[in-house]
Amino acid sequence: MSIYLIVPFCGVTAVAFFFIGAVAQQHISYKRVKSVTHQDPYVYRSRHKLYSALRFLGVEAEPPQATPIAPGKRLSRKLVTAADEEGCSVVDKAMFWGRSRIRKRDSTEPENRDEIENVNEIMKYGFPGMDDIHIYKNFVVSYDRRNRIAHWVCERLGVECLSERDPKTLVKPNEYITDYTIPAMFSPTMRDFRNSDWVGGHMASPQNYKCDYVRFHETYKFPNIVPIHRGLKTNIWQKLEHYVRLLTLRSDAVYVYTGPMFMPQRITFRNWAIRHHVMGMNTVAVPTHFFKVIISEQKGNFDLPFMEGYVVPNADIDKNMDLRAFLSEIRDIEHFAGLKFYDGRVRNELGMSIVDNPNMDYELNIE
Predict the structure, then answer these.
(1) Does the annotation count 335 as an active-site position?
(2) For position 149, what pLDDT does the model report?
(3) Active-site residue among 38, 151, 202, 217?
(4) Phi/psi zone of residue 235: left (φ > 0), alpha (ψ -120 to 50 degrees), beta?
């Protein structure tokens, strides 16, 4: 073989093996850095500099900063991809590129775009808290594993689902439904509700979703169920849910945050304590109060939505009481619930409701 062929061949082979060795060394180094970041906080804070030092052909760009998502918009694919590829070696990126090509060719693999759009629509006014989020068709739940109930439930109500009815919703489930996305040790069961002074109350009411059996069925899952006094559920709480639906019929859209509260009680002059019952073998917490924060987008040209807040004690209440008696300041609900709601414009007079008389007897005319 000619010397003119041997020398270039050896040179190309040496460069190729050098490149392969460098790629392998980079991949191993990335894996080691990632493993150490889980153990050493200092390495975790400095990981971007380490990734930049190990990167080929240039300096790694700054990591994407968390920015609020505008209402109605979905996450940018570039930001999602950049976040996913943080600390990826050349080998990882090649594998990521190959998987993305396979996904594009395989039309049977579903994408979660609809789910992202659905969450952006429901949570238009933000998350009051970020503990253990669970997403359903038309409401979002933040679950409290310690108390076995929800921190809060947010739902978006529209006129379209109040004007129709699916015949399947005439029959409701005989028992509440277990959500297997929650570990069994943190989830209540039907045995906890039997032979108890309390019954299951829906944070997102099934009466809001009679147009769709799937949505109606999801409201019977345990993360949406909280122990409530029977006398409260069949009277004042039911009236408050009816009021929300009537408000929806007169609005463009209504966003409702519902959840339990544990209010302190005075023990002595200077001492306070939070006392509440628990029920069943799973020690499901029984709230002392419930709240509803309602954000209503009115028909017409309004710059900001209107807000209302209600706090109702979890006890048997006189059914003839006016709903206005339970109106509460949003900031008070935030203080005792440990949540933060949308900082929109609160009405100057919360007692002046959009509906002339929220305690009126009204019907939705849905057969």
Answers:
(1) no
(2) 96
(3) 202
(4) alpha
pTM for this one?
0.66
**pLDDT (tens digit, 9 = 90+) per residue, 30-45?**
777 777 766 565 666 6
The amino acid at 56: F
φ, ψ of residue 61 to 5 degrees: the values are -70, 160
Which phi and psi (to 5°) does residue 11 adopt? -65, -45
- Residue 259: strand, helix, or coil: strand
Distance CA 360, CA 117 (A): 36
What was the pLDDT predicted at 41?
A: 59
DSSP string for 288-332: SEEEEEEEEEESS--SS-EEEEEEEESS---TTS-GGGGB--HHH
Can you tell me the distance from the alpha carbon of 58 to that of 35, in angstroms, rounded to the nearest whole number? 24
d(CA 296, CA 277): 34
CA dihedral 66, 67, 68, 71 (to 10 degrees): -120
